[in-house]
Amino acid sequence: MIFKQEFKWNVKALMIWSIILGGLVFLMMQIYPDFAKQQGNLEALLEAYPEGIKKAFNMDRLSMGTVLGFYAIEGYMLITLIGSIYVVLLAGNILAKEEGEKTIEFLLSKPISRTSLLSQKLAVVILNIVLFNLFVSLINGTGFLLVDDGTFEWYPYVLMSVAPILLHLTFASFAFLLSAILKKGRQILSVTVGVVFITYFLQVISSVSEKLEGLKFLSPFVYVDAADIIIDERIKGVYLLIMLTIMILNITATFLIYRKKDIAV
Asked: How far apart are CA 145 and CA 207, in angstroms?
């Protein structure tokens, strides 16, 4: 019952975020043919860019003269960054709102355990993240077919569609944990959105400066780097292991904390 009702409450936001983000990247991809025609002039322009800027946005390893290269530089960042904001808003509010809106009293009066409550809420978060990325990937895939000049490859694109799911689940698990600890939704959202932007900034500066390269391990955005995926045609095993470990630890801690939490009704 909780799963069905919670999914129903969140499906409108899911569709809005999917259409807006997918549509934005779709429109962006429509200018690719013009960029491809001006490839020579574009490469000359990029040569004038500071080396740090090119590294930060993978312009030193990818070419904007291919469909996937253009998407990786211009569109993939939007999906990972804006998508992460959407999932922390979703996961960060899903438990805390019950206490904030005083509906937790109604839920706890029902013959349902806290473990079941958490499991159903978590299932809604996971399903929303998978559907969100599926919708966005389908919209973008349609855009690729319209502008493909023969350089598009499906396998790297599928990997770049799976990688944001892993990234979003990682951030969502952290927001879900905070949702079990804190009571005020505003506090949770401030912290989680801040963490998203800080870790994105860490990814940028660790790409620019060799002295700060070690900071990349603190940023999940590095774990799903588009250039690595396109060049290696895989998600690195060590990064996959780190993300799975973070998810398991956060979710386990959420269950342990929430089952013993003193909830005022």
From this structure: 31
